[in-house]
Write a sequence for this structure.
């Protein structure tokens, strides 16, 4: 099934202007007290769906739906599966519930949209907007693993039902050989299910050279499908992973396409990426991933990735959190608790609120507590042991609210169905049976996964340490995009918007915003702000104010640095 989006409504009367503004396959109906209508965008014919179901979407194009809208008696039910692969939004206007798979579709229905301060603050803390919040006031996201249920008699107070929880198993697997055998079968089954509908057409795989994407590539080759791999090339900057991807491709005897992620290509793709993402996502990988999808879409209609492996098998980012958890348990009276330490691992603007926001916004943010958005994910009732609790949190936060929905958005805009074998419920539930030492053995993370696949890939790929995609954000920002920052984060525009302080960009590049924002963090924070500002103008649709010429980004970087040195004498 070709990727599509939808927008629809459910209420007491027909909304005639709705179908006049939208063209696409249409489905509608009515009950004793309500009428409903939905338009499929990018879909010429109506897909087959279950009875009493209004609309569904599957990111992979073949499996069980990732989001659904259905009817039950006189109730409307909006649901989203546990991995969060596809977003689902809703808003209420008068006595009508509007729902859509893209925020931009709902924005067209809101006469005067306003930015949600809670959504803005959440974004600045995490680089994504935490569910069920949204960057737009009075618009809400359905959280992964939940259903939102509306009743016409009490439409303004929907019931939120959590139908799935990531839960630690009481029986833990401790035998390494048993775990290896079971895991190998689960991995193979996960891929076999996702290639069952494929015939002779080639599929693509995003191959970073890391363990997870390499495993997916190996399993695809084992399954007998035609595979083409795609890998990023950042040139002379960043941490080069391409040689590892090349090594894997040669070992598996599959073609590898090098995708040019040069500053020029990144700059050209920034605004298309922002529009494709629909929501603001502040991680630096988004534009490179857009380029990967763009190239792959010229040769295939189905793309595989290794997303989700870190969440399932406690990747390297868990190490400092484990150390923090152990320290906290031994020193419970220390000033900073574990949730605060977890919040710091996002390395964004939590803790810098007073330096970042203009007074009016800061006054509203002071009443918000970002830690509350982590409490459910870190709930000890579902995962008493630290490692499983961290894995639960990673699945619910970084996976379902960031990694998976952005992967789907970037694939869908290029007409690609995206398949993530690690997003397999049987596999995921099995990992909650693993004893801690099988996930993290000494300093070796993902230990049992590496043991299970050590004969499928080169040893160097399996056992090397991995540190994530080396996107050279700071190099781009202080060199290639120096003058562009003067436009994207222009002091005049920021002053008129009355959200961030006008000189925030210069504060960041001079290291004056905070002592911890140095080196790679400079690029990460600048990128966070850039992506918000571009979303604000190109998706939300705010009209930009007048630009100021009083900022350092007008000068060449080298000349500005020389000027700063003279000022210090």
């Amino acid at each position: 099934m070709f990727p599509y989006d939808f927008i629809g409504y459910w209420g007491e009367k027909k909304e005639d202007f709705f179908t006049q503004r939208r063209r696409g396959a249409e489905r509608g109906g009515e009950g004793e007290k309500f009428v409903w209508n939905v338009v499929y965008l990018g879909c010429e014919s109506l897909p087959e769906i279950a009875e009493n179901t209004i609309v569904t979407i599957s990111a992979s194009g073949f499996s069980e739906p990732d989001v659904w809208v259905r009817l039950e008696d006189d109730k409307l039910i909006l649901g989203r599966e546990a991995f969060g692969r596809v977003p689902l939004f809703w808003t209420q206007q008068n006595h009508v519930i509007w729902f859509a798979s893209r925020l931009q579709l709902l924005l067209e229905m809101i006469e005067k949209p306003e930015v949600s301060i809670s959504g803005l603050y959440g974004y600045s803390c995490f680089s994504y907007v935490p569910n069920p919040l949204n960057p737009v006031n009075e618009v809400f996201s359905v959280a992964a693993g939940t259903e939102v249920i509306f009743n016409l008699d009490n439409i303004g107070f929907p019931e939120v039902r959590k139908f799935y929880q990531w839960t630690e198993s009481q029986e833990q697997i401790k035998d390494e050989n048993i775990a290896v055998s079971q895991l190998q079968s689960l991995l193979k089954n996960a891929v076999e299910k996702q290639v069952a509908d494929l015939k002779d057409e080639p599929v693509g795989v995003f191959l970073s050279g890391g363990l997870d994407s390499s495993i997916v590539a190996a399993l695809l080759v084992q399954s007998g499908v035609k595979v083409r791999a795609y890998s990023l090339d950042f040139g002379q900057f960043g941490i080069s992973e391409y040689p590892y991807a090349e090594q894997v491709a040669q070992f598996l005897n599959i073609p590898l396409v090098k995708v040019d992620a040069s500053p020029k290509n990144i700059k050209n793709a920034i605004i298309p990426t922002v529009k494709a993402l629909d929501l603001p996502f502040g991680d630096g990988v988004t534009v490179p991933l857009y380029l990967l999808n763009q190239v792959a879409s010229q040769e295939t209609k189905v793309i595989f990735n290794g997303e989700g492996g870190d969440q399932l098998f406690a990747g390297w980012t868990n190490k400092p959190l484990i150390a923090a958890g152990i320290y906290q348990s031994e020193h419970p009276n220390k000033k900073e608790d574990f949730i605060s330490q977890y919040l710091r691992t996002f390395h964004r603007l939590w803790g810098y609120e007073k330096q970042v926001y203009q007074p009016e916004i800061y006054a509203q943010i002071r009443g918000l507590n970002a830690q509350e958005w982590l409490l459910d994910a870190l709930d000890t009732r579902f995962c008493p042991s630290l490692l499983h609790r961290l894995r639960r949190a990673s699945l619910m936060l970084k996976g379902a609210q960031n990694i998976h929905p952005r992967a789907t958005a970037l694939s869908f805009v290029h007409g690609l169905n995206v398949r993530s074998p690690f997003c397999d419920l049987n596999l995921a539930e099995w990992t909650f049976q693993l004893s801690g030492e099988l996930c993290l053995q000494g300093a070796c993370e993902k230990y049992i996964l590496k043991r299970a696949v050590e004969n499928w890939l080169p040893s160097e790929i399996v056992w090397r340490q991995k540190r994530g995609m080396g996107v050279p954000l700071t190099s781009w920002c202080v060199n290639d995009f120096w003058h562009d920052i003067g436009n994207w984060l222009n002091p005049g525009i920021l002053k008129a918007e009355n959200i961030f302080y006008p000189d925030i960009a210069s504060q960041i590049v001079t290291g004056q915003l905070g002592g911890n924002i140095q080196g790679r963090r400079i690029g990460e924070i600048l990128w966070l702000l850039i992506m918000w500002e571009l979303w604000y103008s190109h998706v939300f649709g705010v009209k930009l104010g007048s630009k100021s010429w009083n900022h350092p980004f007008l000068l060449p970087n080298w000349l500005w640095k020389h000027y700063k040195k003279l000022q210090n004498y």
